[in-house]
Amino acid sequence: MRYPFAEYEKDAIASKTGRKFTDITLEEVMKGHIAPDDIKISKDMLKAQGQVAREAGNDPMEKNFERAAELVDVPDDVILKMYDKLRPNRSTKLELVMMAQELLEKYNAKNCARLVMEAAEVYEKRGILL
Asked: Which of 74, 62, 68 has the alpha carbon at shortest distance from 104?
C-alpha cells in the first residue's frame, strides 16, 4: 500500500466494521446510515501504518501502531481506565499488574500488557506508585 492511504489507497481502506472509506460521506452521515463504529479505524489499517513506519526506519512508531491495533477491540471505558491508571501516583503495582493481566487474558493485547508491566517496573523504581 502507498502512503498516504487516503490519497493512494482509497478503495482499500475499511473501517472497524468493514465500511469502505469511500462510502463514508457527509450525505450518508446525515441520512443516519453511518454509525459511530463505522468511522473507527480497523486493525488492518493500523497494521498497514505500522508497516509504513517500519519501512521508513521508525521501529518505535511501528510498535505504537501494533499496540493501537490491539486496542481496537478493547472497550473505550477500559482504555480510559488504563490511561488513568498509568498516570504517575495513580495506581499500586498490583493494580497495574492486574490491568496487564486483563489486557492479556480478556483482550489478547499482549503488547499493551507488556507495556503496562514495563510501566509498573519503572514506576516502582522511580517511586511513583501509590
From this structure: 74
For residues 13-21, average pLDDT: 94
Q: How far apart are CA 103 and CA 107, in angstroms?
A: 5
CB 10 within 8 A of CB 22: yes
Asked if 62 and 54 touch (Cβ cutoff 8 Å), the reply is: yes
Comparing CA positions, the residue from 74, 60, 61, 68 lying closest to residue 106 is: 74
CA distance 20 to 18: 6
pLDDT in tens, 27-61: 999 999 999 999 999 999 999 999 999 999 999 99
User: What is the per-residue pLDDT for 35?
Assistant: 94
